[in-house]
Each structure stands twice: as C-alpha cells, then as structure tokens.
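4.2 Preliminary Data

To establish feasibility before requesting continued support, the project team ran the inverse folding procedure on a target of 248 residues. The structure was first converted into the token representation described in Section 3, and no sequence information of any kind was made available to the design step. The complete token record follows.
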C-alpha cells in the first residue's frame, strides 16, 4: 500500500517520572548504543516518514515546566522538523495524553481530519521499527478499523490470583494473551471522542486503547515486535543494547 500524500500524526508521551531507572538523569537522555533514547525514537519515525512519503506531524508531551528545555534540546536535531509542538503532561498517563490530544486541535497546529491516523507512541520505546509502523498504519487506514494496537503474543504462562491474595485462581490460555506495546493507533475522531469523554467522566487508564474498549470500540491487535521494549529500568538499557546488536 502506498501512503504518498497521506498524513500521520503522533503523540509521544515523554512526561514519566522515570523513578524505576534510579538515576538523576532523565531516562530519555540515557544512551542506547551511544545514542540517547529520545533521539533513537524520533529518528525512527522520521526515517519511516521519509521511506513512506508520509507527511508526519507530532506532539511531544513532557514533564511540567520542561517545555523550553526540550525545545532547546530538539531544535538542532535531524528529526526536529517532525516535532510541531511540545506540550506539558499531567500527573497521570491519561491526563498527559489528553493534553496531547487537545493540542491536535490547536489552531496553530495542522489539525487532523476525522479519519486521519493518530499514533500514541511511548518516547521510551526507542527500538520501534519501520515494518511495525507500516503494519499499524495499514490497519488503521482500513475503513473497518477505528482503533488498533501493536502487540506480541505472550511467551510465558500467566496466572490469575484471587484479589488481595497470592493464591492462584486460574491459568488463562496463553494463546489468547497478548502483550500490548505502542504505537496505539486511532482514527482522529475516535481518539478525540474517547479522551473528551474520559475527561468528563474522570476515567483513567494506563493503556490508551483501554479508553476505546471502555467506550464500546473494538480494538484490533496488530503484529508488533519483541524487540520493541520500553526503557524503564537500568536492565532495559542492557537488553536494548543487546537487541540492537542483533538488529544491525
């Protein structure tokens, strides 16, 4: 499928506290293979846009009070042209992404059309690959898909425990379980509706597509990549560098 003359919008949540990294340095500025995490992530999207002929616009959602600092950091980077807006996040993921969604309708921003694709991608998932992005864009460009998410089948057996205890209640069929990643992908009109309703209802979710599920939309899982890990702990840096060597 050709995506020439089409647009893609991306919201990059980057406002996490990073407490599990146990470092004074922002985890997005920590290096994987001598390149900062944030640089790898945004470069991957710029590369995808260049390869696919897509007009890509993005919003970076950062910690409160850090917009000028991030603007200064990004301005001279090769990927600077894809970052249209830097906005402040909130104290939860839903509020942070919600601020990003609100920025999509800012009159100074190239506002998406109702059926335009909007991806939400964790800035800390720096090993995202073009093939995964293409599969997601192909899926959300399908008239029958309003919401989809990149994911991989769970490799391990999962146990459900009784609430408040450590006693096993059931063992779900592993073939029916997926580990969801990002990007999480929406048609713009659906994304806007979900976040506006969540704000009104005070509904919070740690997963963006959970909002769509909550409001009655069917969510489709698209094949992701096991290498698309999220940099959260010091061990993740080591794992990412090992994965990177295998990818090169």
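Position-by-position output of the design step:
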């Amino acid at each position: 499928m050709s995506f020439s003359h089409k647009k893609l919008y991306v919201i990059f949540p980057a406002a996490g506290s990073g407490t599990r990294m146990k470092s004074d340095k922002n985890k997005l500025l920590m290096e994987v293979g001598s390149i900062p995490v944030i640089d790898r992530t945004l470069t991957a999207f710029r590369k995808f846009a260049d390869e696919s002929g897509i007009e890509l616009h993005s919003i970076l959602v950062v910690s409160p009070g850090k917009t000028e600092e991030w603007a200064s950091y990004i301005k001279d980077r090769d990927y600077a042209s894809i970052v249209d807006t830097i906005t402040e996040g909130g104290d939860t993921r839903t509020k942070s992404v919600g601020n990003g969604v609100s920025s999509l309708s800012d009159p100074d921003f190239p506002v998406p059309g109702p059926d335009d694709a909007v991806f939400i991608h964790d800035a800390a998932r720096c090993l995202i690959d073009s093939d995964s992005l293409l599969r997601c864009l192909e899926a959300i460009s399908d008239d029958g898909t309003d919401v989809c998410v990149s994911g991989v089948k769970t490799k391990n057996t999962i146990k459900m425990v009784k609430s408040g205890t450590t006693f096993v209640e059931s063992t779900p069929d592993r073939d029916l379980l997926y580990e969801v990643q990002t990007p999480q992908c929406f048609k713009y009109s659906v994304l806007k509706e979900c976040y506006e309703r969540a704000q009104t209802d005070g509904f919070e979710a740690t997963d963006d597509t959970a909002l769509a599920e909550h409001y009655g939309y069917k969510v489709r899982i698209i094949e992701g990549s096991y290498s698309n890990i999220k940099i959260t702990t010091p061990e993740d840096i080591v794992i990412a560098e090992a994965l990177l060597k295998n990818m090169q």
